[in-house]
From TrEMBL:
Region feature Disordered, mapped onto this chain: 21-120, 479-512
Compositional bias per record (Low complexity), positions renumbered to this chain: 500-510
Pfam families with a match to the protein in the record: TTL
Keyword Signal: no
Residue ranges, compositional bias (Basic and acidic residues): 40-51, 104-113
Feature: compositional bias, Basic residues: 93-103
Keywords: ATP-binding, Ligase, Nucleotide-binding
Name of the protein described by the UniProt record: Tubulin polyglutamylase TTLL11 isoform X2
InterPro entries linked: TTL/TTLL_fam
Gene assigned in the entry: TTLL11
Cross-referenced SUPFAM superfamilies: Glutathione synthetase ATP-binding domain-like
PROSITE patterns: TTL
Length: 624
């Protein structure tokens, strides 16, 4: 539930999309059959395809292109490039001047000098390489597919922050993010917030961590069943290190024999299964929503205006012992359902086993559903989840990139998997640190023979997310805006640039983004910070931890660290010697070790803090 301003203000930016969604969706379906549907204007018969200027580094560009199969043009309205001579270029695509290209206004004495292209290291992009290449090409930036000896402006990694040593620029991963969104860590982080704010964090199913909490799981299930004999729950078991649906299964009772096997193999999370999901065409589906964490300090969160809806391939029935093993009925994972004989590949955004989320909203809107309310609840879920993750994430960040030392600026695209219940309440399933950005799918040509085929649905959503993330992180953006203000030409985002805009863009005007559509990522924090800042209690505790202790590459507070904490907090005095501080540390450690695992995880965080810090209070009182 939102606090402060009414929820219609939280979702005000969605009103235009909700009102015009049906018209836009219909327009897409009509345009899709046109020759220009792949992203370029229709050309007359016999018209020659315009050639792109030669790259600045032919070898790197040729080798990089060889790694990617030929693709259709990007799904973005493009303009016809002018001949090289009309753009002030030599036949080889290079500037006629050796200095940076400049444009002098006819009625101004000032001179606008465009900065060099942004450089992107894509050598570790992995499965997101195709979408990244298209994005860089649309932005007219410079790609280095095999790395570069000189520093790049942006480094795009496919998996982890620790892919290589980076000392400057921007990198699309946060240190510690992969660990923070693992199923066990995420469950613990959300549980802390559920203990503090139970009503605000009721969007995450009740969870137990195995094997540590197996006995607690058994006892709580038995207690609820004894109180309500009609309660017949279903539980879903998710391995902590699993991905793409690997190792997930359903059970009806803790005594399930497979659960016993899990205890002896790998840690897992067991959750209450959502038995009444919203169905479309009698099929269960989930939502993959892309969220950009632009900054940790200050906290900046952006949400993509569109996402993907992944469908099961078998009509849904509520779970009972006879259908618990029907994975195509209960699990929405694309990597599982792709192997179903009922999986439908479609070039339409509103049909098939993978569709755009906007097409689902259009369908719901036609049935009278309040789309603004749905979006408002989803945005609230995203902000609250990120707030639960940021405290430990900030400690990871300070540990890897201490203040005052050289290091990159981090940002990251997260994949939120969300399920809509029958009553349209969003439920968080999980958060992916490395959501798939592939824009093709495998198609079986003959038994055992597969071919990668472009997926227009994936390309439409994912290329826009990557491209607009790069636009938001553009290191030269502020410089261009300042120069534009000096020239008296404010930069304005336009959904449909005019012919004059396109002409000026191709000639190197002050707005290099004039040919691009409006940004598909919308800021939700700090835009709505006033409604959610009261939830950042644990975040403030992390600030104190970092401020008064400092980070030395460890997450634990040892005796030396405790001494540092006392000194930085200015608690030491003539009456509080370091020997007394050591005794105090031993007393606190003894209290912590005497607490059981269940007490540590189930007691409210503030109660734990007060219990452990109680000796400090007594000691300070006794010493004046």
């Amino acid at each position: 539930m939102l606090r402060g301003r009414p929820e219609r203000e939280l979702a005000a930016w969605l009103e235009a999309e909700a009102v015009g969604a049906a018209k836009a969706h219909a327009a897409k379906e009509q345009v899709r059959v046109d020759p220009g549907a792949a992203g370029e204007p229709e050309r007359k018969a016999g018209e020659e395809q315009p050639k792109e200027p030669a790259p600045a580094q032919p070898r790197a560009a040729e080798e990089g292109d060889a790694r990617v199969p030929p693709r259709p043009p990007p799904t973005l309205p493009m303009y016809q490039a002018k001949p090289a001579s009309a753009q002030g270029l030599s036949p080889h695509g290079k500037s006629r001047s050796k200095s940076r290209s400049c444009k002098r206004s006819s009625d101004r004495s000032e001179e606008y000098c465009s900065p060099r292209p942004v450089t992107v290291d894509s050598s570790k992009a992995r499965t997101s390489l195709d979408a990244l290449k298209i994005s860089i090409r649309q932005l007219k930036w410079k790609e280095f597919p095999f790395g570069r000896r000189l520093p790049c402006d942006i480094y795009w990694h496919g998996v982890s922050f620790h892919d290589s040593d980076i000392f400057s620029g921007l990198v699309n991963k946060f240190p510690g993010m992969t660990e923070m969104v693992r199923k066990i860590t995420l469950s613990r982080a959300v549980r802390i917030m559920q203990n503090l704010f139970p009503e605000e964090y009721n969007f995450y199913p009740r969870s137990w961590i195995l094997p540590d909490e197996f006995q607690l799981f058994v006892a709580q299930v038995r207690m609820v069943k004894d109180g309500d004999p009609s309660w017949k729950p279903t539980f879903i078991v998710k391995p902590d290190s699993g991905c793409q649906g690997d190792g997930i299964y359903l059970i009806k009772d803790p005594s399930d024999i497979r659960l016993a096997g899990t205890l002896q193999s790998r840690p897992a999370v067991v959750q209450e299964y959502i038995c009444k999901p919203l169905l479309i065409d009698k099929l269960k589906f989930d939502i993959r929503l892309y969220v950009l964490l632009k900054s940790l300090e200050p906290l900046e969160i952006y949400v993509a205006k569109d996402g993907l809806s992944r469908f099961c391939t078998e009509p849904y029935q509520e779970p009972h012992p006879r259908n618990l093993h029907h994975i195509f009925m209960h699990l929405t994972n694309y990597s599982l359902n792709i192997h179903s004989g009922n999986f439908v590949h479609s070039d339409s955004t509103s049909t098939g086993s993978k569709r755009t989320f906007s097409s689902i909203l259009c369908r719901l809107s036609s049935k009278g559903v309040d789309i603004k309310k749905v979006w408002s609840d989803i945005i609230s879920l995203v902000i609250k989840t990120v707030i639960a993750l940021t405290p430990e994430l900030r400690v990871f960040y300070q540990s890897d990139i201490p203040a005052g030392r050289p290091g990159p600026t981090c940002f990251q695209i997260l994949g939120f998997d969300i399920l809509l219940m029958k009553n349209l309440k969003p439920i968080l399933l999980e958060v992916n640190a490395n959501p798939s950005m592939r824009i093709e799918h495998e198609q079986e040509l003959s038994p055992g023979v597969f071919e990668n085929v472009p997926s227009l649905v994936d390309e439409e959503v994912k290329v826009a997310v990557i491209r607009d993330t790069l636009r938001l992180m553009d290191p030269f953006k502020k410089k261009r805006e300042n120069q534009s203000r000096q020239l008296g030409k404010p930069l304005a985002s336009k959904e449909e640039p005019s012919d004059s805009d396109l002409a000026s863009a191709s000639a190197g005007s002050a707005n290099p983004e004039a040919h691009l559509p409006s940004i598909c990522l919308k800021q939700v924090f700090p835009k709505y910070a006033k409604q959610f800042n009261y939830l950042r209690l644990v975040d403030r505790m992390a600030n104190l931890f970092i401020r008064f202790l400092g980070i030395k590459g460890t997450m634990k507070l040892g005796p030396t660290g405790f001494r540092t904490f006392i000194r930085n907090c200015k608690l030491s005095s003539s009456s509080l010697s370091m020997a007394a501080v050591d005794i105090l540390y031993i007393d606190i450690t003894r209290r912590w070790n005497s607490m059981t695992m269940d007490q540590r995880d189930s007691d409210p965080l503030l109660d734990q803090a007060l219990l452990l810090l109680h000796p400090v209070t007594l000691f300070l009182r006794s010493h004046g």
